TrEMBL record:
<keyword id="KW-0067">ATP-binding</keyword>
<protein>
    <recommendedName>
        <fullName>UvrD-like helicase ATP-binding domain-containing protein</fullName>
    </recommendedName>
</protein>
<keyword id="KW-0547">Nucleotide-binding</keyword>
<dbReference type="InterPro" id="IPR014016">
    <property type="entry name" value="UvrD-like_ATP-bd"/>
</dbReference>
<dbReference type="InterPro" id="IPR027417">
    <property type="entry name" value="P-loop_NTPase"/>
</dbReference>
<dbReference type="InterPro" id="IPR000212">
    <property type="entry name" value="DNA_helicase_UvrD/REP"/>
</dbReference>
<keyword id="KW-0378">Hydrolase</keyword>
<dbReference type="Pfam" id="PF00580">
    <property type="entry name" value="UvrD-helicase"/>
</dbReference>
<feature type="binding site">
    <location>
        <begin position="45"/>
        <end position="52"/>
    </location>
    <ligand>
        <name>ATP</name>
    </ligand>
</feature>
<feature type="domain" description="UvrD-like helicase ATP-binding">
    <location>
        <begin position="24"/>
        <end position="325"/>
    </location>
</feature>
<keyword id="KW-0347">Helicase</keyword>
């Protein structure tokens, strides 16, 4: 690969100069080893180790030295959030910005799969994709099942099964030994292939395929099938992208990993995979590990966290379920606390934490980054136990419902924001897909793909392009102006779909105008008599906080999903016994893995809340670890440290 970039790309002077420009310190040899490595490797990076900054620096150095006009760097991540973070860091330098255009590719694994494998496979069959979306697929599959006489026997057979609707709504393709097979959500066909129901099940899936309607999972199966039929594509991909960097590798599914192995498995491509396996989402029944499962035994490590100090690092090290790692805390030497409550003081837990944060964390830090309150469960289940979720501690907490009223104007505002950020193509695509979803509610026809729209202003396609432009550039504050835009859309849809609108009443909610309101966060209101120094906290799930950095974090004891155990209680027992987390019961491992994610967020204060009767047996051991323990007796009790 040395001919693709300048040989002095990673010399010490260049690395230090660009690191200084980006405001990065490189005090540890492990950081230099990763930056300067040009071989395939796995990097197990502890929380707060600065892996995203290192990735940005390494990519900027490569962009600075890259010489090939036709071969590029491929950067893949599991989520759009991670992709956007990398993209944001690259825009800081001219060298980084070079990687945002051809011949390079930066995107999610799903986007890569669609762009280079699944979509070409479908185009070779003459199929134009209308949508890739699980919910849109489910709606269309169930509608087809109910309305089309061709699937009457299948509909009857499914009516005798409790999971009948799900079998159709979540049907997916699986590539089995080179064959593309329609299966249920568990990956197996729900009927014998030779039966009438089995044939109709496969035919319904094929009918949706011909219409260009797919689930996300389908695209991976189509890509794998395409690779099976054309194995030379793997060699072509490895040639096009001789350097591949995979971020957040721990979240990659077995299906995604298997496909990536096939695409970039051939020799020639350098594949560097980065992540933290101990933040991997826990699977109850994982498949047998792939030979290439992340991280490989000889993986490099970034064990030093600059987010937090030694106390949080010691706790986190003991909760590394998937791969043992001793984390070094090089950040602020913060506080770890345990708040004990009883049945009468559940509602006082969060206020007590806020007062503790005010007493231990610099006020400006809290104002810039309010205290966070996290729970593994947001709302109560059917169990009678109390407390069992975040909502039990935070009266009035509710999750944000799925919005249907005003869905088009909400999406249009999001598309306008994308356009203003410079991503015009993504904005238009987002808006057109939203219009497609609206059209499906009231028309049996389908909208053409965006690229097939005619450009002549006198045609329906030209009028659609003009409407897209106006939606992306018009003010959306006035309901009158919005009514004019939606009226144009309703006049246009029959011409575009070549089908009359039959259910216009269904469009009242999605086309409704709603005033713009900044999305509120779940803020826990401070009591009226609270100290002036208290900053109200923000509540949410542990899962949603993944990747964040907090000044102060409270982890609430919640009932795990079996309804028999409490997560914080189980973790306290694990820590007190100094038990190897990887050898604990599966339910305890699950609790430890989630708590690990939450506990590695804060810089200054980490607090746990546990019921006194469950936690008291562990108080002595916890105190010996250097934690402070506080009993919440009354509303005005302010824990001290």
């Amino acid at each position: 690969m040395t001919s693709l970039y300048a040989p002095d790309a990673f010399i010490k002077d260049k690395v230090e100069a660009l690191a200084q420009q980006l405001g990065l310190d490189l005090p540890h040899q492990e950081q230099w080893n990763f930056i300067q490595s040009l071989e395939s490797l796995d990097l197990q990076a502890a929380p707060g180790s600065g892996k995203t900054s290192l990735i940005g620096l390494k990519l900027a150095l490569l962009g600075q030295a890259w010489a090939s006009p036709t071969r590029g760097i491929c950067v893949l991540s599991h989520t759009n959030t991670a992709k956007d973070e990398i993209t944001h860091r690259l825009t800081v330098t001219p060298a980084g910005r070079r990687l945002l255009q051809y011949p390079h590719f930066i995107g999610t694994i799903q986007a890569f799969t669609n762009t280079f494998l699944a979509l070409p496979a479908l185009r070779s069959r003459g199929i134009e994709v209308q949508t890739v979306d699980d919910q849109a697929y489910a709606d269309e599959a169930l509608r087809l099942l109910e309305r089309h006489p061709r699937f009457r026997k299948l509909n009857t057979a499914l009516g005798h099964r409790t999971n009948g609707p799900a079998l159709v709504a979540e049907a997916r393709y699986v590539c089995d030994a080179g064959d593309l097979v329609a299966t249920g959500p568990d990956g197996t066909p729900p009927f014998k292939a030779s039966s009438d129901s089995g044939q109709q099940f496969a035919a319904l899936k094929e009918a949706l395929t011909e219409r260009g309607i797919f689930r996300y999972h389908d695209m991976f199966a189509l890509a794998e099938h395409h690779l099976f039929q054309h194995p030379q594509l793997a060699l072509a991909a490895a040639h096009r992208f001789p350097f591949v960097l995979l971020d957040e590798m721990q979240d990659t599914s077995d299906l995604q990993q298997r496909l990536l192995d096939k695409v970039f498995g051939p020799p020639g491509a350098v594949v560097q995979r980065v992540g933290d396996v101990n933040q991997r989402i826990f699977a109850d029944a994982p498949d047998a590990a792939q030979p290439s499962s992340f991280p490989l035994p000889q993986a490099a490590q970034l064990p030093v966290s600059r987010r937090f100090g030694s106390k949080i690092a010691a706790l986190a090290s003991d909760l590394t379920v998937h791969r043992s790692q001793r984390i070094d805390g090089a950040g602020h030497d913060g506080t770890v606390a345990l708040l004990l409550f009883d049945d009468d003081t559940v509602a006082e837990v969060v206020p007590a934490f806020e007062r503790m944060a005010a007493a231990t964390v610099p006020r400006q830090l809290l104002l810039d980054n309010p205290p966070r309150v996290l729970g593994a469960r947001l709302t109560r289940g059917s169990a009678k136990a109390f407390p069992q979720s975040l909502s039990c501690y935070v009266p009035g907490f509710t999750t944000t419902p799925v919005q249907t009223t005003g869905s088009l104007i909400t999406t249009t505002r999001a598309a306008q924001a994308q356009r203003q950020s410079g991503d015009n193509h993504a904005a238009i695509t987002l808006l057109w897909n939203a219009i497609r979803a609206v059209a499906r509610l009231a028309s049996s026809g389908v909208l053409p793909p965006l690229r097939r729209l005619d450009r002549d202003p006198a045609t329906a396609g030209g009028r659609a392009r003009l409407l897209l432009h106006d939606l992306l550039t018009s003010p959306l504050d006035s309901h009158v102006e919005w009514a004019v835009l939606t009226a144009r859309l309703l006049r246009l849809l029959p011409d575009l779909t070549q089908s009359p609108l039959k259910g216009v009443a269904r469009l009242a909610d999605p086309l409704a105008h709603i005033p713009y309101v900044a999305q509120p966060v779940a803020v826990v209101e401070a009591p009226a008599d609270a100290d002036q120094g208290v900053v109200a906290s923000v509540a949410g799930s542990i899962q949603s906080a993944k990747g964040e950095t907090h000044a102060a974090t409270l982890i609430l004891e919640c009932l795990e999903r079996s309804g028999k155990k409490y997560d914080v209680h189980e973790v306290l027992g694990l820590l007190s016994r100094q038990q190897d987390a990887s050898k604990a019961l599966v339910t305890i491992q699950r609790a430890a893995q989630l708590v690990f994610v939450g506990a590695t967020r804060p810089t200054h204060l980490l607090a746990f809340a546990a019921h006194r009767t469950r936690a008291e047996p562990y108080v002595e051991a916890i105190t010996a670890r250097g934690w402070s323990v506080h009993d919440i007796h009354a509303r005005n009790a302010i824990p001290t440290v």
